[in-house]
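Folding Problem: From Residues to Backbone Shape
Fields: amino acid sequence; protein backbone structure tokens
RECORD BEGINS BELOW THIS LINE
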Amino acid sequence: QVQLVESGGGLVQAGGSLTLSCAASGISFRNRAMAWYRQAPGKQRELVAIISSGTSTNYGDAVKGRFTISVNNAKNTVYLQMNSLKPEDTAAYYCNVQPNYWGQGTQVTVSS
């Protein structure tokens, strides 16, 4: 049974940093793309960052230059380092592993 468990969310002031983690069990990251999505109240879920082949990354325009996605295959964990956080980054953040596995989400709230 595949399980993805996110952690690291919380409340932070604008300009601060957080690191989200997504620990996977029951699945190998090998040859899979992993991603972080987010969904704010009343908005559609949007792609934040994606990593494939261990090193190839892409980011949503809103977070480019501020967020970094990385993976530790030995720990079966994908991370999202978030710097220079803004109030508009407030959302529930979800881990995704291909083909269609999702975590339960972790809330990030950025105060102004």
